């Protein structure tokens, strides 16, 4: 593939009022690219994730996700970016679709430039709170007593840490090397730090750090919003539908809105869906 020129689309996912959101790279027609080609392109793109779209024999399409440093099983904002862009551009009709990933099939629902992706019911595991808080540069007094650090997995593993107030998010300055090592230890994609926002249209505002995957911080993380929606529901602090904000405390800010909708039966979460808007923001060409 040496010398081949590849078009890379940039699509913002989970935008808020047509602005903000998290940019993802998209490469259409990626069938002829090798794994090393995809990793090289994702590294050159420099975005938190790039999605490579190929034909699938078992799903609507095949999606492979790469951060600048490694492949990842699932990526929420790149899924929303891919299906939202394909829906808005008329390449996919509205309705139910499926994506093939290295971790199996998932449903995705498309309505123009809006897409909703399926995640698994949550699995919770304990982590060492003192180690996690130290890596985040936080003290126990800053943590909401209802939300000690906990690992939640709906397809990717994240540790969720609840703080007392949104203002506490502004000063979070993690030790990325320490967070990287803890992420390896607990098989995490990243750490999702949040605070409840009871006087807002959103249920919580958040920040996400993923140094294990070469991401210092990103503006919207669909695979972390799903676990947070589950945690809030299971703790009796949110209903089946939850709107989450992310990106407000980034530098520079990039406010994003992530909608989490749960199916709950007999007190147990049966299905998780995360949705948002996607918007094409640019395109470039990269040479392999």
From TrEMBL:
The active site is at 49. Belongs to the PhzF family. This is PhzF family phenazine biosynthesis protein. It holds the Pfam family PhzC-PhzF. NCBIfam families: PhzF_family. The keyword Cell membrane does not apply. The keyword Isomerase applies. Keywords: Isomerase. GO terms for cellular component: cytoplasm. GO terms for molecular function: isomerase activity.
């Amino acid at each position: 593939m040496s010398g081949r020129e590849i078009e890379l689309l940039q699509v913002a996912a989970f935008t808020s009022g047509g602005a903000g959101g998290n940019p993802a790279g998209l490469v259409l027609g990626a069938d002829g690219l090798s794994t090393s080609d995809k990793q090289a392109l994702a590294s050159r793109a420099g975005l938190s994730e790039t999605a490579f779209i190929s034909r699938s024999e078992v799903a609507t399409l095949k999606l492979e996700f790469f951060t600048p440093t490694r492949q990842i099983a699932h990526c929420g904002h790149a899924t929303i970016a891919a299906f939202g862009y394909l829906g808005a551009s008329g390449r996919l009709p509205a309705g139910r679709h499926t994506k093939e990933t290295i971790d199996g099939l998932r449903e995705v629902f498309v309505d123009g430039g809006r897409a909703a992706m399926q995640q698994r019911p949550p699995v919770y595991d304990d982590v060492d709170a003192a180690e996690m808080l130290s890596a985040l540069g936080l003290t126990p007094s800053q943590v909401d007593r209802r939300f000690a650090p906990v690992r939640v997995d709906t397809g990717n593993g994240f540790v969720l840490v609840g703080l007392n107030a949104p203002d506490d998010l502004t000063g979070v300055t993690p030790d990325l090397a320490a967070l990287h090592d803890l992420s390896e230890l607990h098989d995490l994609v990243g750490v999702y730090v949040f605070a409840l926002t009871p006087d807002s249209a959103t249920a919580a505002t958040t920040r996400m750090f993923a140094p294990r995957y070469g991401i210092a911080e990103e503006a919207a993380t669909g695979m972390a919003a799903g676990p947070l929606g589950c945690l809030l529901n299971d703790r009796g602090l949110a209903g089946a539908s939850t709107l989450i904000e992310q990106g407000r405390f980034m530098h520079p800010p990039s406010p994003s809105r992530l909608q989490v909708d749960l199916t709950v039966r007999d007190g147990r979460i049966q299905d998780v869906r995360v949705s948002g808007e996607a918007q094409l923001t640019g395109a470039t060409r990269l040479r392999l």
